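FAQ: What does the model actually see?

It sees only this:
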Amino acid sequence: MNLIRVNPLRDFDRVFDRFWSDFPLAAHQGSQTTAERTWAPSVDIEETENALVFTMDVPGLEKSDINISVENNQLTITGERKPGENSGETLLSERWTGKIFRSFRLTATVDAENISANLKNGVLTLVVPKREEARPRQIPVSVQ
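And it is asked to produce this:
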């Protein structure tokens, strides 16, 4: 059962974005600073009998850094990881900072009103329950 629609072009774009991120002067970045770039964290989506479970690594983000919304069956996760406070001169900075963005089209078979989210140890887990009518059910067999 296909409950979400994935955009293969977005995945293709992510491959190129990751490739070009190693070249700070790459033309595709234009005048963007590191803080202006958007990071699309990888996500695992599991379908259970009663829900879709989205698991996303968001290291360094706190609850207050993450925004989750649903509008017109579009699940959107945004946030921002800001640079840490330094007491001295930064000699090397390889950790990613900036905005995050992921968006998923949900089908009408999910219950968008009852989505729950949990953040633990840098892992964001969203549980998107299925509507009752979309869940598998047993049909009793009667004997005549």
